[in-house]
Every structure is written in structure tokens, then in C-alpha cells.
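G., the chain you wanted modeled:
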Amino acid sequence: MVPKYKAVKYVWKMPRPLKERYAEDLMDAAYFTAMETDPDTKEILIRSDAHSTTRIGGEWVADPPHITVSCKNAEQVRSGTHQTSHGYTKSLTDLEILRVTPDGFAKADNTMYKRGKTHWPEGLPEEEKYHPV
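Predicted structure as C-alpha cells:
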């Protein structure tokens, strides 16, 4: 029996890490986070590596270590929307995902932050990776 693979597009909103092992670990953590959010994910926007703050009501507050990703299924690719999730990690350096918290709603890709940037900008570096299903 031939194993089946799923192609997923990764888009880098942050600079792609120079250390290949770390970049691969971050992509794997982003994949796990996205699949927990929506098993039909086709595209993943890697918004950050592990960090320990989040924004609540416009204010930065402490939060356990996590990565932030946005993801799209096929319909969201067509409609220009996405959903964002946090993948909570063991630490800032160990990217094993312990739990995932989706924000629970789709947002338009061109939604603007207060600082004038869109949530899912066009023209960012991207790459494709295949995962067994």
C-alpha cells in the first residue's frame, strides 16, 4: 500500500529561521497547531516563533510560551479568510505543542492592524511541505 501525503503551503510572516532544524521544528509545531484548529488546513501562516506574551484588549500581557499561526482550508483560500490559533509549547525553546487554542472565528486576510499592516499580507516567502495522512 502506498502511503498518502497531504501538501501544505507554509507562509512566513516572520523571517524564516536560519537554523534549518529550528525552522523544521517550527513548521512541525505550526502543522500540529493548524491540524488541531482545522484538519482540512491547506495553508499555514507562521506568524511567530515561541513567545510568552499576548494582546488582550489592546494591552500586552504575560502568557505561557506559545507560537501563533493562522490557517486556511480550501474554502478560506477561495474566500480570502483565515483563522488564528495559539499552540502552547513546553517552553520557549522546546516547541512540542501541549494544547491549542483557536480564536474560534474566521477573519478577512486584508483586515488591518492598528499599526497599518494586514493580518495575512500578500507576497510573503512560502514553501510547500508534504505530511503523511
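The mean pLDDT is 93.

Shout if anything looks off.
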